[in-house]
Amino acid sequence: MSDALIKVSMENTENSVDSKSIKNLELKIIHGSKSMDSGISLDNSYKMDYPEMGLCIIINNKNFHKSTGMASRSGTDVDAANLRETFRNLKYEVRNKNDLTREEIVELMRDVSKEDHSKRSSFVCVLLSHGEEGIIFGTNGPKNNKLFQRGSL
């Protein structure tokens, strides 16, 4: 397997209000070989030889119901696009979901948890939304983040 070099560049635009400017950031992914891994105990290493790298779900909540009093999140579309590109470059299957209510987030997580993930090395869920300590906002209001703990679905 060869090494991968990922270049990330993001310019400030009207949609990047919430995001920090990144100019020509380079991330190098080095795939191990037996000679590199010879000193690592296999019991403490992460298996990386699955048929698929993994699944990445990006939930992008930009527009909120008026009843929440939450403003639209400008800049979130740029963040979502950069995340999508990054995870695709890392060979993940990426699924984008926009403006989900708290109930739709729960339903999506339940559905994804029932899928066969045995051929994937990892699962990533990115939730771009308003939030507070221990609370994530669906487009219709807050949801306690205990939803994302093991065994809660």
Automatic annotation (TrEMBL):
The answer, when asked if Nucleus is one of the entry's keywords, is: no
Listed SMART domains: CASc
Domain Caspase family p20 stretches = 52-153
- The answer to whether the entry has keyword Transmembrane helix is no
GO BP annotations listed: apoptotic process; erythrocyte differentiation; keratinocyte differentiation; neuron differentiation; positive regulation of neuron apoptotic process; protein maturation; proteolysis
Alphabetized UniProt keyword annotations: S-nitrosylation
Q: What Gene3D superfamilies is this protein classified in?
A: 3.40.50.1460
Query: Which InterPro entries does UniProt cross-reference here?
Result: Caspase-like_dom_sf, Caspase_his_AS, Pept_C14, Pept_C14_caspase, Pept_C14_p20, Pept_C14A
Q: Which GO terms describe its cellular component?
A: cytoplasm; death-inducing signaling complex
Any single GO molecular-function term of the entry would be: cysteine-type endopeptidase activity
Q: Which Pfam family would be a valid example here? A: Peptidase_C14
Under the subunit heading, UniProt states: Heterotetramer that consists of two anti-parallel arranged heterodimers, each one formed by a 17 kDa (p17) and a 12 kDa (p12) subunit. Interacts with BIRC6/bruce.
Q: Which family does it belong to?
A: Belongs to the peptidase C14A family.
Protein name listed in UniProt:
Caspase 3
Biological source species: Nomascus leucogenys (Northern white-cheeked gibbon)
